[in-house]
Amino acid sequence: MPGDTVIMTPDKWLAQNVAKQVPQKRIVWWDGACIVHERFTPQDLRDFRGWYPGLKIIAHP
Q1: Mean pLDDT, the chain, as a whole number?
Q2: How far is CA 61 from CA 51, 53, 58, in A?
C-alpha cells in the first residue's frame, strides 16, 4: 500500500495486530472493537470446548 500511514476502523485489536506485522507503516486506529471479541474471553472459549467436545469455534480476525 502506498503512503506511510494507514487508518483502520472499527477494530483496534485487528489494527494492533496489523501494526505488529507491518512495522514500516504508521497504523492509526479508532478505539473501538467488535462486540463479540469484547464479550468472549479466551477462558470462555476453553469452557465452551470443555462443555461441548468437538466444538468448532470460528471467528473473523
Answers
A1: 90
A2: 24, 23, 10
